[in-house]
Amino acid sequence: MSDPTCGVLLEHDGPIARLTLDRPASRNSLDLPLALALRDAVRSLEGDAAPRVLILRSSSAHFMAGGDVRRFDALLQDSPAACQAELARIIGAANDTVARLTRLPCPVIGLVGGSAAGFGLSLALACDLTLAAEDARFLFAYGAIGATPDGGASWHLPRRIGLQRALAMALLNTSLDAAQALAAGLVCQVVPAAELDAAGQRLARQLAAGAGQAQAGIKRLLRAALDSDLDTALDAEAASFLAQAEGPDFAEGVRAFCERRAARFDPSST
């Protein structure tokens, strides 16, 4: 699925899917058409259509500058009720997108350059592995317009960087540059802006060559552990390990280890 008129491009390159935000004139600011198109694109990647790896990126220098505040202002001037109704649809689609991204079995790589503000920050936080360009800046932004967060920012941010840092970002509207984001644990790697796409592709190819079912299980277990106790996590780990041990990837991985060679996992396994 690809709808360039709404600011979203979805492309497939073998086992790797690339979901591109393509509304450069507004720094990918989130309006209703973009919110709906993004949600529908992520929906299309579920089930049997799931890729081995998903890359989430921008076509321009900025990842996403948050909501389309100029659109909100125009709506408020015309009809506060219409603004409220449209915001409800935008937030519903945005929240659905984040929930579905985190539930995808495949690893999701976020490539962030320039501004990642408001829902742009929420979207970056929903990715499993986030790479930042050296010029990236992460900004909570909601408080600056008298709003509270959406897109799971209130859930993801304190879990990613700790409550104290999250509160400082949110209440003081302070930004993190790429180096600070790396130190805080918000991103896993920082690269020059000109190398961001290439670094993302290298990481995607590395992941696509791995054991897909094991990666899906690892992602599921680690995300579930954020809200479970140790006993629940131990039971889930045991069930997942034994299920994985019945599959061909486990047999290949064990045999490759014993033969001191690189494992050749089934590229179609997810």
UniProtKB/TrEMBL annotation:
Domain of life from the UniProt record: Bacteria
Record-listed E.C. numbers: 3.8.1.7
Keyword annotations from UniProtKB, A to Z: Hydrolase
GO molecular function, one term: 4-chlorobenzoyl-CoA dehalogenase activity
Keyword Hydrolase found: yes
Pfam families associated with the record: ECH_1
InterPro entries named among the record's database cross-references: ClpP/crotonase-like_dom_sf (IPR029045), Enoyl-CoA_hydra/iso (IPR001753)
UniProt xrefs under SUPFAM superfamilies: ClpP/crotonase
Keyword Hydrolase annotated: yes
PANTHER family assigned: EG:BACN32G11.4 PROTEIN, ENOYL-COA HYDRATASE
Protein name as catalogued: Enoyl-CoA hydratase
Source organism of the structure: Bordetella trematum
